[in-house]
Request: fold
Amino acid sequence: MPRPKLAVWKFSSCDGCQLSLLDLEDELMAVAGAVEIAYFLEATRATAKGPYDISLVEGSITTAHDAQRIQKVRKQSKMLVAIGACANSGGIQALKNFADHEDFIRRVYARPGYISTLATSTGIADHVPVDFELRGCPVNKHQLVEVLTAALSGRKPNVPRYAECMECKRRGTVCVTVARGEPCLGPVVQAGCGGLCPAVGRGCYGCFGPMETPNTAALAARFADLGRTPAAIRDGFRLFNANAEAFREEGDRHDQA
Reply:
């Protein structure tokens, strides 16, 4: 019986989520044994034609070519999983959504006339139906294995939707907001990283995006109590998942304050 075909696609991104797949080490051999890696240019130039049983898509849609290509990927894929902050909400490059993207181009590139880009950076689900979104910047490699295992087993992935604060409590990490008055997005961010930043005394930056039911207004009010200006609160929500709906709306509220 032929193995299911796995394809891994890159759009506008840093490749970090693809590297998380390659960083599976021992688990990678089991994954490679369970599927046929039919398309994965980060790992091999050898490719096989679709259709594909599972497609992992990294990166955001930032060019007209991206917008056309994702349609083709969707048509070839039985199951499409958007992996990482870029594929889920546009990534850090979605900061241009809140500014003049032409000005961004002029500041970054010596010859901006050669650059052709959309005015926005958006997630995959803004363009095609997505079967599952795996959060993170980059994704948690163990969660990635869970998603692949679930797909091969025909079940729903068991990925937490609760707040990052739960991981801090399990780890025994002292709350940086309570103990030190340090702003932290942990109460509204989905768990997944293991509480890395709070473990070293820094507030959460929101790499895994909004949790299932984030109360961003209450957290923003707490940040204001800590002395944060409206601009600082806005910028706090405009990081790796700036274009995620809950974070975008809260950031916009303080942009107008």
